[in-house]
Structure formats: C-alpha cells, structure tokens
Amino acid sequence: MTASDTLHIVCPHCHTTNRVRRDQLGAAPDCGSCHKALFTGQSVALDAASFERHLGRSQVPLLVDFWAPWCGPCRQMAPGFEQAAAQLEPGMRLAKVDTEAVPALAGRYGIRSIPTLILFKDGREVARQAGAMGAADIVRWARSAG
Ligand code: ZN
Asked: Which secondary structure element, helix H or strand E, spans residue 137, and what is its range?
C-alpha cells in the first residue's frame, strides 16, 4: 500500500486524524479514536482550534460556510448546506464557522459579507462565493471548483 492509497480524514467528532484507504472512503469508515462515523452527511461546526486541524490535515477538500446566527440569509441557506453535505461527502468535508464566535477567522480570510463559502484544498483557498445558494447550486459550484 502506497501513501496515495490512503487519505487523511479528520474526525468531525473528536478531530483526530485518521488514515483511510481511498477505496474505503465510501464504506462508512469509523474514527479509530472515538469510533463514531467519519462521515455523517452533516456539516461540522468548527471553532478556531478544530478549524486549524481540519484545514491543516484533511486530505479531502474542506468547504466552509462562514455565517452568523443573526444573519437571515445564512439561516435560510442552512438546510440547503446540510443537503449539500449529504451529497458531497465523502469526497469533501463540509463545515460551518460562526463568524461571531470566531471573528479572528473571518478577519483572516477577509470575510466582508455572509454567508460566504470558501473551498480549501490542502490548506489553501481555491474558491469562494458570497451570497446564499440552494443545495443544488452549492453542489454544482463545489464540484466545479474542487
Ligand atoms: Zn473521532
């Protein structure tokens, strides 16, 4: 088995980095540490520390919704984002960052309006899109960008 046969997948529950065989990605792999499912079909809420973990270690693209609880369009988009998570996993990890709870991250990425989606690959931003989108548009955009 070579390195390219395995991917580093960060657990959405305990944020431990797991090595998963590429061909096992779709077979509902469990976390070796907390034994919960590595993919749940739902986005993961990240704080500053867990964001760094996923950003730095995940070998599947990380799609982050920068949002805030007081933002109407953000709340409107939330169900669509969860539907997109169900469709895009396990090829991507979908996450949410509350810009009010973690303003430093919003500042670092220069988030000027919310919701803003940013797609990260290997720790680097590869695409961003501001404004609310429905599930189908999120999936289409993420697949074309990723
Ligand atoms: Zn875990």
From this structure: helix 135-145
> Which residues lie closer than 8 Å to 47 by C-beta, 6 or more apart?
101, 102
Residue-number span of the structural domain to which 120 is assigned = 41-145
CATH code (residue 62):
3.40.30.10
C-alpha of residue 123 to centroid of ligand 1, in Å? 20
Instruction: Band the pLDDT of 3: cuts 50, 70, 90.
Output: low
Residue 133 lies in a domain: yes
Ligand 1 centroid to residue 90 C-alpha, Å = 15
What CA dihedral angle connects 55, 58, 62 and 67, to 10 degrees?
-50
What is the reported pTM? 0.95
